[in-house]
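Table S2 (text version). Query chain:
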Amino acid sequence: MLTSITPRKVALLGSTGSIGSNTLNVLRQHPDLFELVSISCGSSLDAFVKQIEEFNPKTVSVSTESLAVQLEQKLKSRISFSNLPKIYFGIEGHTECISETKPDVVISAMMGTHGLLATLKAAELGVQIIGIANKEILVMAGPFVTKAVDEKKTKLIPVDSEHSAIFQALMGNDLSEVKTIWLTGSGGPFRTRELSSFSKITKAEALKHPNWAMGAKITIDSATMMNKGLEFIEAIRLFDLPSEKVKIIVHPESIVHSMVEYCDGSFMAQLGISDMRIPISLALHYPKRLPLQLGKELNLVEIGALHFENPDFKKFPCLALAIQAEKIGAQGSIVLNAANEMAVDRFLKDSIDFMDIPLLVEEALSDFQSSRVENLGDVMALDEEVKAWATVWKRDLGLGRRNASSRATISL
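Corresponding structure-token output:
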């Protein structure tokens, strides 16, 4: 006798980005296992309308009221829509979508405070699984998120490839037996480029990642290796490990997504092609795995060799700044994340140069390192204050290049 399977209800925060698009691809492959009940996005209305039309969620949300009005008009103009979803907007709207639909799984891929508060709401409601794809949430407010998750016994599952690899390598093992977590990074597009030419790096060059297809912000973070610095902090938060047990190693092939070294000298590594649908599917269907149609498979014979090297802190000072920020404390991580977010945004808008990104972040850490963070309100206030400061930052008004050569090299 066949038994029916109740589909898991899924809410997707950030549906039009890279993670969101890949999540929807997984849902399409397994329509019998999942029901998409809620989706949220920032401002990409045309893509959002198509998603709503395809998946028919009960609630949707966008970033502003004006966008919500535009969205309603677009949906009403579609003949195929007989039942409009409830439309919300803003931070409150994103959280209301979670509250109303009571999903089993939330995939959190929305940047900034919008994603943070909606993720916290999911934890407070006792959602079974939160698949966290936005590393900035844990960097900004890791202690608050993990506390909320622990209190409701929600399972927090990392969706980015490196932390998913660690999560998988820890399965069935005791955290007390871990000697070192090894975060791997490709080194981005400038791993082999001469440092003397970094001042000439263009936006187009920085947006060409050698292995991964990602959104603009994370692609620039990969080019500066700030993404690995943020992942360093995230790993400490996620797995509750001291910073000295988390190390970074460059692996240009992006086949070994990360490793766990145990006290007996054993290494557990997760290998796979560069495809975000793999970690996404694990979060969606945990504790079981899903068969996936990926279009290609890992062929180790074809690859032939895997290479590893230490990161170059002279080329990538953002990585050293992230390690420094973690040592400063909670405020250091918040300042790092906010300053970097604004620096990347300004670089993408041609307001600053590529090498200004670490300079801006460095000065922010210097200026705001004494800030006090005692509650979530302090987190939000400091985030806003740093972003306002970074908006008007100019190289010749601060540390500038005068201190660029004075950074300490941090050995991992």
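Notes on Table S2: Residues 320 and 410 are 6 Å apart (CA to CA). Confidence is low (pLDDT under 50) at residues 399-412.
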